[in-house]
Amino acid sequence: MWLPSVSFVLLCMLQLATCTEDFYKLLGIDKQASERDIKRAYRTLSKKYHPDKNPSNETAKQKFVEVAEAYEALSDPESRKIYDQYGHEGLKQRSQGGGQHGHDPFDLFSRFFGGGGHFGHQPGQRRGPDMEVRVGVPLRDFYNGHQTEFQLEKQQICEECEGSGSADGQVDQCHSCGGHGIKIQKHMLAPGIFQQVQVTCDVCGGQGKTIKHKCPVCEGSRVVRKVSTFQLNIERGAPKGMRIKYENDADESPDYVAGDLLVTLSEKEASLEEDNEGRVDGTFFRRKGDDLFWKEVISLREAWMGGWTRNLTHLDGHIVALSRPRGAVIQPGLVERVQGEGMPKWHEDGDSVYHTTEFGDLLVEYTVILPDQMDSGMEKDFWALWEKWRKKSGVDLQKDSGRPEGPVKMPVKDEL
Ligand SMILES: [Zn+2]
Ligand SMILES: [Zn+2]
């Protein structure tokens, strides 16, 4: 009696294996999705689940295959109609009836991304150049961390013709060069003396292929220049000049595997007009490594007499209170180190139970401003006060400096 139960288990497993997820759900699109949406979804997901990017991850590999299946089914209007009406069962019957079936998911991938359907360095496979860009990031985002995006124009494989360059998908071998892209020409240098020269085929431009009906979007060039949006995750305390690698996101071509896009984070200078909303002092802090710098202006009275407070607003809005009790003098140019109010120190692993964020310091430099105008009554009062205290305990800096009273006669050197 144990045989049937084993076959029952087997049946269940088969059921599981064949019971694929809804194609629309799999691609993260709805039933009204346009052809473009389907392509976009495929582009994103196939890259995400590509086995090269998920080594020894069986789930990702499975997803990669499923995403390709879903794309194949939904990108063809006829099979999409069948799928919409009869679901997976309908497609299965159609493929048994001789319809298209069993595409290699790597083939499909290479139609979108060029190369042999793989990332990285496959032997004998060409790789396109890397691309470098700088993205300006305000200091605030370096301090707090920020999830943002940026846009970049780059070369992409034409979605319309999937990189074939042809409107009808038909590409012929060039009749002029026989598909080699090059031709051998004979030049006569002198009577009877010939030189053989290899030249690029002028008919196909070295492609070895000709297209009768060119794709209307890329005009047969197989690629288009288009603006793409990239997600950018700026980690808290990320160092200036940090480089973030987007694998295989450089210019695409059907002839090679796209190189990497390398994004360098640079600090965007804060502008008084644009970034002064909310009057956050931190916006104008200057950064050097993990430390922040700020100039605070104080009056002569404050510098001399003390008895003041200042509330600096930091980059996340919290307050850093500076103060001096009465009688505490600040010399012009004094630099005060406020510990722990600098940048968060960037750590590879971010925050974790093993590690909490440490901070650099905030260095506040005091600039003392002297009044350049005084009420005449006030001037008299101050003068009198100075005179009184100068006589009692004042010092004469000229007298105390030890400088000579009059001009000094410099010794004249004897002539040799
Ligand atoms: Zn040719
Ligand atoms: Zn095209």
What does this structure look like?
This protein has 416 residues and is an alpha+beta fold. Among the domains are: 10-113, Orthogonal Bundle (Helix Hairpins), CATH 1.10.287; 272-379, HSP40/DNAj peptide-binding domain, CATH 2.60.260. The protein contains ten helices and 15 strands. It has helices at residues 2-18, 23-27, 35-49, 58-75, 77-96, 105-113, 139-144, 300-305, 376-393, 397-400; strands at 131-138, 146-157, 172-173, 182-190, 193-200, 209-210, 223-234, 243-246, 261-268, 286-288, 291-299, 308-313, 319-324, 335-338, 362-369. A four-stranded mixed β-sheet has the order 10-11-15-14. A hairpin with a 5-residue loop joins strand 12 (308-313) and strand 13. Helix 3 (35-49) packs antiparallel against helix 4 (58-75). The relative contact order is 0.09. One zinc ion is lined by residues 158, 160-161, 165, 215, 217-218.
Task: List strands and helices in order, with pairings.
Blueprint: H1 2-18, H2 23-27, H3 35-49, H4 58-75, H5 77-96, H6 105-113, E1 131-138, H7 139-144, E2 146-157, E3 172-173, E4 182-190, E5 193-200, E6 209-210, E7 223-234, E8 243-246, E9 261-268, E10 286-288, E11 291-299, H8 300-305, E12 308-313, E13 319-324, E14 335-338, E15 362-369, H9 376-393, H10 397-400
Parallel strand pairs: 1-9, 11-15
Antiparallel strand pairs: 2-7, 3-6, 4-5, 8-9, 10-11, 12-13, 14-15
This protein binds zinc ion (2 copies).
Largest sheet features: 4 strands, mixed
Number of distinct beta strands: 15
Q: What fraction of the residues are assigned to beta strands by DSSP? A: 15-25%
The CATH class designation of the domain at 272-379 is Mainly Beta
Physical arrangement of strands within the biggest beta sheet: 10-11-15-14
* Rg from alpha-carbon coordinates: 37 Å
Distance between the termini: 128 Å
User: What is the mean predicted local confidence, pLDDT?
Assistant: 86
Shape label: elongated
Unreliable runs, pLDDT <50, ≥5 residues? 10-17
**If you consult CATH, what is the topology of the domain at 272-379?**
HSP40/DNAj peptide-binding domain
